[in-house]
Amino acid sequence: MGEEKMMTTKPEAAAAAVELPGFVMSAEEAERAAAAAGVDTVDDLLPLLIPSAMRLARPPISRFPVGAVGLGESGRVYVGVNLEFLGVPLSQVVHAEQFLITNAAAAGERALRAIAVSHMPCGHCRQFLQEIRGAAGIRILVTSDAADGRAPEWRALASLLPRPFGPHDLLPKDAPLVLEPHDNPLGDPVANGFAAGDLEARLKEAAEAAARAAHAPYSGCPSGFAVADGEGKVYAGGCLESAAYNPTLGPVQTAIIAMVAAGGGPAGDVVAAALVEKDGAVTAQEATARIFLAGVAPQASFHVYKYRSSDV
Length: 312
Description:
Largest sheet: 7 strands, mixed
Number of strands: 12
Helix content: 25-40%
Shape: globular
Structural class: alpha+beta
Strand order of the largest sheet: 1-7-6-5-3-4-2
Strand content: 15-25%
């Protein structure tokens, strides 16, 4: 189903891997890298970036690195890698495609055109991709096909998940999806919501902004999480829900993605954290955040700020 075409990378460039400068490449950087690699388009550049992306993965449990590189409608290129965390349940693992989407959303990207990935996307990721408007037309290329004796080729996501369940089953057609702007109302802080000191104030502000930008149309419970490292740098993320629920990324995961994408250290470097969520939320994040911090960064201080609508 959908458009499928053979990969057009020139044979002489096929083995010439290209190093990534970070987790995001500007459109200009991507065009220059494609020209330097001797390929015709940025689409052809994507698979050449996969070896570099895989080296950025952090899989201490499986020791199976996965890299994904996507081309946005803006011309920017986004990187995603798998993240695993010792001492907490496997449900906290971040898949490479999820990282990529979170990375693109944080940069304000509005659509993804193509994704090259080191290994065939699992069902979890095929489902998570449905949160992007026009997901069926996103083109996917699996670079490990070459090792299996198959020529890597672009295929539409619709061919990997031909009869998807997704946002169209649960939401109005005009509801904002994962790469579209959100401005979630949170209400006012309840009496126990306070921030003492500059770092705590910055954490609360970042977590609140992340909650307002979160994609939480299914639960109606937007949440945001912010972390700080020993240098006082703050990273934040909001929950990104899936229509199928289980592939949902919680705010703890998206905040750690932000930390990794910005060149920060491991999650164990977190020294302070803050969570913003609705009071009485039907899908609360506090317990999960406490489990994560206890297992990964037990030294971190943690504050929770609850918000309540004025009409409740």
